[in-house]
Every structure is written in structure tokens, then in C-alpha cells.
Amino acid sequence: MTKSTEANTLERPSAANQAGAVLQTTAEHFRMLVDNMKDYAIIILDTSGRVASWNPGSETILGYRSSEIIGQHFSRFFPSEEVQRGKPEMELKVATAEGRSEDEGWRMKKDGSRFWSNQVITALRDQGGTLCGFGKVMRDLTERKRAEEKATLQAREIIEISTPVIQIWDGILMAPLVGTLDSERTQQLMERLLERIVETDSAVALLDVTGVPTIDTRTAQHLAETTTAVRLLGAQAVLTGVRPAIAQTLAHLGVDLGNITTRSTLAAGLRVALNLLNLQMVSGNGSGRKDAQ
Amino acid sequence: MNDSLPEEIALRTETDIIVVRKSVREAATRLGFGITDVTRIITAASELARNVFLYAGSGVVRCRVLNGSDRVGLELIVEDHGPGIVDIDQAMQPGYTSGGGLGFGLPGAKRLMDEMEIESVVGKGTKITIKKWRKGT
Amino acid sequence: MSEERLSIIKVRDILMVTMPADPDDATVSALQERVLLAMERSTARGVVLDVSAVDSLDSFFARMIAETTRMVGLMGGRTVLTGIRPSVAITLTQLGLTLGKTRTALSVDRAFEILRDGSQQVQKP
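Above: the input entities. Below: the C-alpha cells describing the complete assembly.
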């Protein structure tokens, strides 16, 4: 056997004796490290997936004492639907074929509660390359997961309320669009904008896309639909904040924006709106109307 | 909620389209759909009911509440024993019409709803199922 | 079902047409006929079509409106459509029905203004 020959060769020369001592100390240190890793479950599985070794971190995270889990199959850490889908076998298969397998997912504690786990499973092979088991390292990332979920939820809420429809002038509404416009959001915006137009009897609606990073075909289509619906009410929509990049995209997409008034800046759009209402904007820097003097 | 919906609305005369619109409006409103979705459903129902007159002469509309595990919806089944649709793909093209309509009926109804299914046998008839799911909670 | 009928009244030189809430096909068809007849008899300058009571407008109804607008135009008048509800406007747009070149106004008042202002303008072809 390769292992014993190797051990023999290591013990023969005196220099090697020293090396052996170093190795042993390293092994001890390693054992101490594993024992003290409270935040990591470090588990050795045999080739069939049964638990062969269990560190204290595993007990903290999964809830089993080493006496009750040694010899048990590691599939009990998976939710039943994952077991049915053959997930545990899959993990071992991937690790055997590729050396390691890493993923994140819900896992089960002894008390039946779930935790969000990040895990790496590594195939352990001897010098000859024969598979002798698996090393599995798990981390409980439930808190991070919950924080992420909360952040996503908050981001959604912010996006939902982030398109206010503001009356900026008698007869002029403005909707500053920020972020990515998906179908759902554009639909909601369209409804709100149209309702506000009727409520406030506003003849002009400025749709400002300054805060929209990119526009795809669908979004452009939605904007075109919105302006058409606004026109059906008897009002007019002006698309403002159309930067060169967005103008290029719109032109390339071939979306029919023929009936839509567009302006590169909100200020220019506001001027259009005031014109439509037969109002005039008097410039504040002295270059205003001459007949005022 | 289910039993308060009319089982079947017979489409025999053009005024029955109004009965369809009225029943559908009531059902959709009761299910808690927003005003725009209610309008979409009524309009889709109106388009399909009118198609029945244009192509088959008479038919029937059934209205059903869909209780999914995590969502609620409304299903309408419009069925006739007319000539059937020869080419469904063609009939789904906006602007296509074979019977003097505007050609917005089928593709229009599809756009207004979430799901649409057409079963048609030439010489036997047509069955169109449309569904709309309520948004939000 | 639809006891309420289409109403057409003349206000000075403008025909004020009001659609009932849920008109049946016969009422929608009557719209065209009665409006054109009234245009001929009354030498009206234009038509204000108020659909504020209407809570759904399908392709048949939309076609009738677009056609009537065109025909009134051929008789030298203009039509201004008013009172489309937001939900109806969204549904029409989604259906792909944009009512052609029909002028629209937010309110009956504004519709009258448009027709008054338009009297000096050259009719567009």
C-alpha cells in the first residue's frame, strides 16, 4: 500500500524524523483549527455520503452531537424536496467528477428549522487517486440571505414609489422616470399618469427619461403606448431628457415615435409645454421680452 | 363566490353582447380587479362575443373564477358551433379579417388578457379560453 | 337593456353628442347615421362627441367613431372626442386602436374651444 510505504520512507532517515514531527504538529494544529472553527461546519463523509467526522462547528450549525450523527447519511441535511430531486447524490457526483462542488441553498437543522447555507464539497483522494471520501464545509448565511431579501424588497418598493406624477404648473404634469422600466412598472405609471391628467385637467404631461440608463424595444413600445393613451384623453405627452445614447437606441430600434414630441432636456420640454398652453417663459437673465421695457 | 357567477350566457342576438359585458364586469369587479383590468376583460369579452356573431351566428360564454394556490383569476370560455378557424396563426395576425370585422378581435383579446387558448375544428366550431390573473396580493 | 339612448343637441353651431354608458350595437350604429343627418340639417360647424359615460369601448365602437369623424370631415365639419376614461384609453391603445386622426379633448369645454378656434384655420386635407 502506498500509504504505509510512504510512512516507512518518512521514518527512515533522521532528517525525516524531524519532518515527521513537523507533520504531526501540523496535523495537530490543523485538528485544533478545525475544532475551533465555530462558524464553519467541517464534515468528512465516506464515499457513500455517510458522516465520518464532525467538528464542533457542525454541531453549532446543524444541531447534532457527533455521537448521534456519525454514520448517518448526509442527505438528512437537505429539505425533503431537494432529496426527492436527488440533490445529495448530485453533489457527490459533481464533486467526484470535478473535484469540488459549491452552491448555496436552504438546509435543515436537527430541530427541523431551515438555514441558508453556503457549502463546498471536495472529493478526497489518496496518493493513488482512489476516492476515499468527501470533505464538506458549510456556513450559515441565513442572516445575509435575509438582509439580501429585505434589500431586494426595499428596492422594489422604492422603485414602485419612485415614479411620482407631479403637477409642476397649472395644466402641466411631470413624471420623472428613474431606473429600469419593466412592463409592470410602465403599466402602473401609465395608469397613474392618465388618472392624474384627468384629475388635474392637465393638457401636457412631461415624461422625463433623464434617469433611465437604457431603453430597449419593449420599454420604447410602452412609452409610445403611454403617449398614445395620453393623446386619446385629449392631452399631450412630451418625452424629455432624451440623451444622445437613448436617441440612437430609439432610432435603431425602429420604434415608431413619429407622433411623439421629444426634447433633449427637461427645460426644453417645459418650454414646449408652456407653448402648448400659450404661456411664455420669461428668461431670468435679462434676455427676456424686449417689449417689457 | 363561485356560485354567484352565471353559469352560461347564451349568445343569440347582438344585445346579448351587453349581457356578456355586464356579467363579466360584475364578476371581475367582485374579484377585486383594478378598473383598467376590468375594462380590459370586458373589452376582450366583447371582441370575442362579437366574433361569435360575425362568424358563427350564435354561441355561449362561460365565466369561471380561478382559484390558484397563490393567485386568483377569471376565466372566460367563448364557444360556438360555427365554421371554425382554418388558419389560427393567420387569424392571430393584427388586421387580418375574414368576416368583415376590423381584425382586432383575436390578437386584441390576447393582448388584453394574460392567457389565451384557441381550439378550433373546421366545420365543427371554435372554443376560445381567455384568462386574466389578478395582480398584487 | 340599453334604455338610455344616444342624445344629440345643438349648441349654437356645434352638435353635442352624448353616448350612453353601455351602448348596444344598434345605438353605436345609429351614432353615424344620426350625426350625419343632423350635420346636414343644421349646417353645424362641428361635433363634440362625449363618451365620458362609456366604460368600455371595443373595436366595433372605435371603428364607428373613426368612420363618423371621417364622414363629418367630408361634410366640412370637425369632430372632437372627449371624456375617454383612462382605463378605456389604455385598453384602446393596447388593442392597437388609436382612433385615427380624431381630435380629442380633456373636457367638453375644451372641445368647444378647439372647434371655435378651428373656425379660422384652414381645414387640413
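Note for the figure: Chain C has a mean pLDDT of 87.
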